[in-house]
Amino acid sequence: MRRLFAAAVTAVFAAALAVGAALGIVALLNATPDQPNVPLISYDTAQPGR
User: Fold this and answer.
1) Alpha helices in the chain (DSSP H)
2) How far apart are CA 17 and CA 10, in angstroms?
3) Maximal CA-CA distance, the chain
4) Per-residue pLDDT at 35
5) What count of other Cβ atoms lies within 10 Å of the Cβ of residue 13?
6) Residue 8: strand, helix, or coil
7) For 39, left (φ over 0), alpha (ψ -120 to 50), or beta?
8) Cα angle 35, 25, 37; round to 5
9) Cα angle at 29 between 12 and 40, to 5 degrees?
10) Pick from 14, 18, 38, 49: which is nearest to 6 by CA?
């Protein structure tokens, strides 16, 4: 009976750890990095007389 209880506790702990890791990975993937909204290339379109 003691081995069965230890196996059940281990299984519950492993399942909780797997769920926590999965939620942590999803949270990291949903995090948006701070990126400046500055274009790398800009074209001058306002040149009069051309």
Assistant:
1) 2-30
2) 10
3) 92
4) 74
5) 10
6) helix
7) beta
8) 10
9) 170
10) 14
pLDDT at 23: 95
Cα distance between residue 44 and residue 48, in whole Å: 11
Q: Which of 37, 39, 21 is nearest to 29 (CA)?
A: 21
Question: How far is 24 from 28, CA to CA, in rounded Å?
Answer: 6
Q: Which pLDDT score, from 0 to 100, does residue 49 have? A: 60
- What pLDDT does residue 32 have? 76
**What would the two tokens of residue 44 be?**
């001058």
Q: Which two tokens stand for residue 32?
A: 């948006």
pLDDT (tens digit per residue) in 1-50: 999 999 999 999 999 999 999 999 999 988 777 777 777 887 777 666 65
Alpha carbons 6 and 14: distance in angstroms, whole number: 12
